[in-house]
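Predict the 3D structure for this chain.
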Amino acid sequence: MICENRIVAVTGGARGLGREYVLEFARQGARVVINDLGVSRDGHGGGSEAADALVAEIKAMGGEAVANYADVADWEGSGSIVKTALDAFGGLDVIVNNAGFLRDRMFANATVDEWDAVMRVHLRGHFCVGNHAVRYWRDQSKAGAKVDARIINTSSGAGLQGSIGQAAYSAAKGGIASLTLVQAAELRRYGITANALAPAARTRMTEEAFGDAMKAPESGFDANDPANVAPLVAWLGSAQSAHVTGRVFEVSGGRICLADGWRDGPEVDKGARWDPAEVGPAVDDLLGRAAPVKKVWGS
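Done. Predicted structure below.
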């Protein structure tokens, strides 16, 4: 078991991908805080039933788990996730930021309230939970304790290349990828790594967006099973991954891909100020030498 005695908190941990992460961490010996507000796919409603049921399931397996029902984007509530881990298990080693919902809309029809709601749960939620955890780990490090902590964020293929009808979600998930790079650069000195996932699997969010493409096959390997993503997450949360930080992993089915991110492409340097009339031919030359861009999802 690669996560034995690790203490892990998973947000949005009662359903979909989060549920599979929780189960895998438990199978690998971790003690788990299952945070879930119990909302619908679009963020409405709420309830404790799903988180409570998963806690009972893990205990029946012989594992250790507790539930937390806080809103990840509420500053005090997100702090309670860390406090729950400390109160129940005496520490915290891993935060998996997984909670989120969708308010899909074509950009021209999107409302500011939809935009703010998506930014709040994804970007603000990642900040709030991560910041509380980092403050705890930094204090431990400054007190002389050996910290071997993990932040595992959730981006998306939509965040890496865009997705039609998901302007807010794509922008939020792109922001999370950038946030991960900053966290990795700033926090390594405290013994904290930060990585992100761009998972593709069958969840409440993808079933509606992709329909039949997400259905389980009648036989053979189910490439869209969310359980396929969980082994990478468990490994990233383990002590074995201490050398990996600042990375974004695309994962689906049996595929693990290390995203290459933004890198300098073709360039031209005149060595002097450009005349506007010269810019067009120079840009056309750069485009001719550049690798083709990945298509936006749905285009």
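The chain has nine helices and eight strands.
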